[in-house]
Amino acid sequence: MINNNKPELRPTRGAVIDLGTNSVRLVIVELAPDGEPMILLQEKLPVSLGQGSFADGYLTAQSMDRTVEALKSLTSTPTFQEADYVRAVATSALREARNKEELLDRARNDLGLDLKIVSGLEEARLIWAGVKANLNLGPAPCLIIDIGGGSLELIIERLGAEPVLDSLPLGAARLSERMGLSDLKGPIPAKLYRSVVEYVIGRIRRFTEHSRSYCLKVCWGCSGSLENLTRIYAKRKKDGDFDYQHILPVPTKEVGEIGLWLSSMSLEERRSVPGLDREKAQTIVAACAAAEAILTTLNVELLKVCPFGLKHGLVREFVEAFVPGAPRSAAAANEESVRRLGHRCLYDEEHALKVSQNALMIYDSFAQHNIFKPNDRDRELLRYGALLHDVGKFLSISSHQLHGWYLVRHANLLGFEDDECELIAYLVLAHRGPKHLKKNSLPELVKSLDSGPKNSRFRFLGFFCWLAEMLESRRQGGVESFKLKLDGHKVWFEVRAKNGTDLESEVSLFEKAAPQLENLFELKYAGALLLGSVDHNPY
User: Fold this and answer.
1) pLDDT confidence of 539, banded at 50, 70, 90?
2) What integer is the mean pLDDT of 171-186?
3) Coil, strand, or helix at residue 520?
4) Cα distances (Å, whole numbers) of residue 466 to 81, 401, 511
5) Cα gap 84→6, rounded to integer Å
6) Which among 27, 37, 21, 5 is positioned nearest to 77, based on CA atoms?
7) What is the pTM of this model?
8) CA 220 to centroid of chain Cα atoms
9) Rounded Cα distance, 133 and 251, in Å
10) Which residues contact 244 (CB under 8 A, 6 or more apart)?
11) Which end of the chain, N or C, is less surrounded by CB atoms within 10 Å?
């Protein structure tokens, strides 16, 4: 987001925050004249946000307090305050928490920080973007993994093709709690260590079966746990100080041996292992087990660690958004994932495109009259919602908007934050108008729209989507332009038809929208002006 306290110029200083299960990370960069980001500040603070939440799904009050204090510390520095672009995302722990809204509200109200949740697949895509932007991965396919606290991200980089992405709830802290490792202060039995390896092998089977054909030889690891594992290996080999440029890659066989070696120690003994951060002593065994499971199953020979990951993906997208000519990986991911979902649901692409074009004409016409405050991102989200408005029809005609809402909400669309996916899904639900919305809406969605800033924003964008569908109700593709004519609080809709297309029936539907128009914008519908239609005189 753009810092609203700064003038509306192209941002030059960006701050990105990655709130994970174990830690919160901050990177602040300045754009050089050539468009490359120069790092001004990097900070990492432990928060253990997911601690104690994996069993019942509720973040503890203590973990939320720690997180808010850490965020306050990071965002109160002068370097952060001078940033004119801020983007903060949260991953596994907050993504799955049942009481996530409490922490989101505290960040927003107490700190002025608009914290956004990203899906597991979007987390994987951002990790891939950060690694690819900063590391020469070579022409051969390679594996990239991030073993976080709550989730495991698996990525296959394929030169010239979209990456293969997966995200699973197999983070080191989660595995430690689930498999009983975190309960043990003494040594961990070798049998228990092997059971963790086998458990992970079972959970990643779908990914590994798809991935064996790539003949992967190298795995890049980009998480704190894997950095610790590599440091331990270097110390055991007496390779000197840890250095990303010269660190030895870890052979797959050694990963398992280090895991069993660490298992043979008590928790206190692990805290003294050279190369291991003390706070990782509780979860490093689970991380080794997960890494061994992945590498052995895919017959990967070497594990290499790299310092890049999700936060660098966020930095890359800051550069892409504000440097002219920079490739737009997030926009490409948006478009590709939306079209892919449409095709999988057998949507009528030509009809979807016409509705999306109508929606943008309606949006722009209302915006030109300053009826609402326009936003480029909202305009783009409206287009995506209009493209997907009919994806539920292959399941049901009568309630396709409800099926479409569910499909979009659970599709893990790439390049979007969680509240953006929520908006797109709402537009799919709302495109048949308020009558169908009230009749078929899920109770939790209705409740979420009863109050708060999203209420009016969701509803007026849903209104535009509804009007756009009206104009394409007979699938003629006959709308050339849409304009508003205002006289005080009275409004006319002016529609120009293409090549004499008969739009009388479509335009007559506008009467149904009159109550909603008055409710949302305090405008009274005065009628429609239809131009260019066969045998129609607008006067």
Assistant:
1) very low
2) 95
3) helix
4) 41, 12, 12
5) 6
6) 27
7) 0.83
8) 22
9) 26
10) 305, 306, 307
11) C
